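Homework-ish question, so no full write-ups if that breaks the rules, but can someone show me the predicted structure for this set?
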Amino acid sequence: MTSTLKSLRALADATRLRIAALLEKDELSVNELQEIMRLGQSRISTHLGLLADCDLVRPRREGKRTFYKLNPQADPMARDFIQLAIRGAKELPEHGSDEINLRRILHRRREQAQVFFNQVAGRFDRVYGPGRSWQAFGHLLLRILPPLVVADLGAGEGLLSELLARRCKKVIAVDNSERIVAFGAAKARKNGLKNLEFRLGDLQSPPIEASSVDLVILSQALHHAEDPAAALVAASKILRLHGQVMILDLLQHNFEDARKLYGDRWLGFSESDLQRWLEGAGFKKVEISVVAREEQPPHFQTVLAGAERG
Ligand SMILES: C[S@@+](CC[C@H](N)C(=O)[O-])C[C@H]1O[C@@H](n2cnc3c(N)ncnc32)[C@H](O)[C@@H]1O
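A: Not a homework solution, just the prediction itself:
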C-alpha cells in the first residue's frame, strides 16, 4: 500500500482524528490521552501505534512513560492530511470535552512543578536540588572569567587552584608545607594541568615576580599568616597595576579550639581590620561582605574581601 493510502486509512477514524487534534496542541503521554478522551489504555495505544506506523506521530520515551507528538518532519502531503484531520475532529461531538479536559491536564502539569517550588520557597537554598551544587556554580562562574594569571597563596593541595587552572592562563599555587606542595604538584600533573605550578614559599614573601599577576587569592590562608597586614603588602607587590586581591576568610570569632584543631593563628578577622590593612597596603575599591554562615556551632562565618591595586 502506498504511503498516501496508508495515511488516509490511518486518519479515517474518529478516535484518531481526536488524537491528532489533541497532539496538535501539545505532546501528551498515553495516560494523559486516556484521561482526556476517557478511553482505555490499550485502545489508545493501538490507535497511536497505527498513527506512528505512518510516521504521522512520533513517540519519545522518558523514564517509564512514552510521550507522543505530531511528527514535525512529516512530508508536506502528510501535514496537509493532518490539518484536514484536525478540521474534521472539530466537527465531532467529543471535541468540546476533549478541549476542556486537555486544558485541565496541562494546567495540572504546570501546577505539579509549581507545587514543589511553592513548598520550598524561602528555604530553597537549604533543600536538596537534583544536580545543583556549589561545584557546578563554580564551573559556570569560571566560564565568564577572563584568562588571568593567578597567584593562589596558601593554596593547600590546590582545590581552588585546580578549578581556576581549567580556565586561567596560569595559576601559581604557593604553600609553605613541603608535603602539601609535593602532593598538589603530583595531583596537578596527574590531572594534566600544565598551567598550574606549585611553589614552596611563604605567603608573606611569595616566590613570585613583582607586578606579574592579575589576581591574588587568599582562601582561608590569611588567618595562618604571622603578620596579615604584611601579607597584603606582599600581595600588592606581585599584582599588576589594577590587579585584584580576593580574600576568603573567617569572620572574627571566639572559638579558641580553632588554634589546636586547625592550626589557626588568628581567630578570623573583623571587616574593619581587613579594610584597614587593605587600604594600608595601597589597595583601592575595597569591598567587604559576609557571604556565608555555617548552620552548625560555632557558626563560622565567611567574609569575602576584594580590592584593586591602585
Ligand atoms: C586552611 S588551608 C587553605 C587551603 C586552600 N586555600 C583552600 O581554601 O582550600 C591553609 C593553607 O595555608 C598554608 N599555610 C599556612 N601558613 C602559610 C604561610 N605562612 N605561607 C604559605 N602557606 C601557608 C597551609 O599549609 C595550608 O595548606
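Now go work out the reasoning yourself. Hint: The first helix runs from residue 3 to 11.
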